[in-house]
Amino acid sequence: MTGEPLALWAEILVCALLLLGSAFVLIGAIGLYRLPDFFMRLHGPTKATTLGVGGVVIASLVFFSAGPDGLSLHELLISLFLFISAPVSAYMLTKAAVLQQLPVDPRTRGKPWDQ
Amino acid sequence: MLAYVIPLCLAMLGLALLLTLARLIKGPCLPDRVLALDTLYINAIATLVLYGIWKGSDLFFEVALLIAVLGFVSTVAVAKYMLRGDIIE
User: Fold this and answer.
1) Domains (range + CATH), chain B
2) Transmembrane segments in this chain: where (chain B) (predicted)?
């Protein structure tokens, strides 16, 4: 930590957002590691991890905006770009997995290549 | 308070990175590995932003943005290769 300390409300807000974001990233990684087949594993990174990164980035926005330099919004670029790009890459990976006909767990609903 | 929360969050993100790395090594097929790489760079962005908060420095933001853009482009390129067997037709 450098410079003067933050205001109390900003510190509490930054701490809450950081804990929430890190918890979401960790849950997404656990899902990626533990779920049984590829189509279930896709949910961890595309939903939980993207939300977690959004939380951490907004915590950084609050932290630097409450500092001596005033408002700083350029962190929004990262979360905006991730929220646009994550569904696109997930869609292309799913198309590739459907094309390769990866093994499907019986609990996965719907076989995409039967339709 | 921030001095206690940030190391805790760094530990959680480090555990997430290790789990993703395990999936990257173990992953039974190619789309699994590409998905693990995708998750790995997203987690790296979160870790870099958190480190920037810890050091109170704005410099890590540019690094995170570069990783975001290049990671997305490389994921799309590899997915295109898996779909068509070719990147540029």
Assistant:
1) 2-84 (1.10.287)
2) 34-53, 60-83
